[in-house]
Every structure is written in C-alpha cells, then in structure tokens.
Specification:
The chain is α/β, with parallel strands linked by helices and 270 residues long. It contains seven helices and 13 strands. The longest helix has 17 residues.
Length: 270
C-alpha cells in the first residue's frame, strides 16, 4: 500500500513515521525544495507539491497512491484564505486525473460555532470564524465528488510533543471565558484514529476527533502551565460562548479507544 500525505507538517510527519514503522510506503509533500531533506531523512519519499489559484506544481508520481491524506490548513492569519478553495479544487482535479479512490481530509471542529451545547457528526455545522467557514466549504467540495470517497476527519485543538498546552496562555491575564470547556486531542490519538479509518476502510464518513475529557479552560491551562513550570495564566470567571465536541463515529463505527482519555494523566513530554 502507498499513502500520500499532502502537507507533512506536525501531524503529517508524525503519521508518516507511524506508517513507515508498519511497512507502508509513504509519499510526503512540502511546498519548497529546502524542506525535502527533512522528509527524506525519515524514509518518506519527498515531493514538492504546490497548488495555487494561478498555477500547479507537482510530480505526478506523488498522486500514484492508494490513499491520499490532505492536511493543509487555510492559513487565514497569513492572509491566504482566498487561495484555499482554489487549492482544494486543484487537488480534486489531480485526484480525478490519477484515479485515487480513497481520501482523508483533515478538517477541524472549528466548523462548529460556539452554540452553547454539545455537538456531534449529526449536528449541522454553523461556523462563526473565517477558518471554520472555509473548512466547511472545502469539506463539501470533497464530499460532493462521486468518483472517490472522502472521510472528513475533524480534529479539535492539537496538543502533544512540540505543542505543550502549558505554553498557550502562560503568563497572560484577564483571559476571557475561563469556564468554557476545552476541546482538544493528543497527537497519539490523531494518529490512532487515522490508522483506524484506514484499517477499517472507513471512507465516506465524517469523524469528530476530540478527547472525551473537557475540563474548563481555567482548570486545564492553569494546571498545564504549573506542570511545565511556567507562570500560571489568569482567566475571567465567566462562561460565554462554548461547545463540547462529541463523536458517534469514534464509538459506533471505528470502535476506537482513546490513548489519552484524561488530561490529568498526560505529561505532554516533548
């Protein structure tokens, strides 16, 4: 089996290493030649792949695979939001051209706005951020295709090696919405859930991927900073907009058991 990962960043590179350890051939993409060595050193077959609104740059060999994982964020903070959907459409054209049949699209639970309730895959997404709206549009572009099956994998906030949550708010004060529940997922579970989708050939689904443990922002980030030896942040004692991310697919379809189901037991060691 050959898996191509479009976007070998923090998650993509870690998932590639897991696949390689299982004897799976992995193609990985970066957007510049300077980054190729960082993939090749891990055993990933590296490619420069770039989709822009006005141009495409890729080696066709990258798309000769059994499964394509798309893991590229909209980069709204860098002002690249308007380029994202044209990129997705260019990727769809390549999927069709090279007849890939199975796709995993890494999305985000940001597609759910803060509607002050629990949500799951059967909840109609009502995004209230630019990134959430763009991601939802990209999901629909992929889901409307009939020549291949896409599983939409919506990750909550990502934590793990290199992303210690104790650093997120350390030393800050007067942080709003301290009573809001957190929605996070550890890298180990990002990898585990993606593997389960592949192993069970679970394509054509929507999967919410978020730890079942939802302490308040104040509790979680204060304790994380304390464990890391950082200045404990100060939160406002208030509850404004919030949501709790639930998942039916994790239990009912994948039968997946979280590796990190309680944040109290997680050290976040790099």
């Amino acid at each position: 089996m050959i898996v191509s990962i479009l976007g070998c960043g923090w998650y993509g590179k870690a998932f590639a290493k897991t696949l390689l350890a299982q004897g799976v051939s992995v193609n990985g993409s970066v957007t510049s030649a300077e980054k190729l060595n960082s993939l090749g050193e891990l055993g990933i077959t590296p490619y420069v792949v770039s989709f822009k609104s006005a141009s495409k740059d890729y080696d066709p060999e990258f798309f000769k695979c059994d499964i394509l994982i798309i893991s590229i964020p909209p980069k709204t903070r860098q002002g690249e939001a308007s380029d994202y959907l044209p990129k997705i459409n260019g990727i769809i054209e390549a999927i069709l051209k090279y007849q890939i049949k199975r796709v995993i699209y890494i999305s985000s639970t940001a597609v759910y706005g803060d509607i002050n309730s629990e949500v799951d895959e059967f909840t109609v997404p009502l995004p209230d951020t630019e990134a959430g709206k763009i991601l939802l549009a990209a999901e629909r572009h992929l889901q409307h295709q009939t020549s291949f099956k896409t599983t939409i994998l919506r990750f909550s906030g990502l934590v793990g090696p290199g992303r210690h949550p104790g650093r997120f708010f350390a030393g800050k004060a007067d942080i709003p919405n301290g009573k809001a529940p957190v929605n996070l997922i550890h890298l180990d579970d990002c990898i585990g859930i993606t593997l389960e989708i592949i192993n069970k050939n679970a394509f054509g689904l929507v999967v919410n991927a978020s730890s079942p443990d939802h302490p308040t922002k104040a509790e979680f980030y204060s304790e994380s900073a304390r464990k890391a030896g950082l200045i404990i942040p100060q939160f406002r004692d208030e509850l404004t907009g919030w949501k709790i991310i639930g998942s039916r697919a994790i239990n009912d379809v994948l039968g997946y058991k979280f590796k990190v189901s309680s944040w109290k037991d997680c050290s976040f060691d790099d």
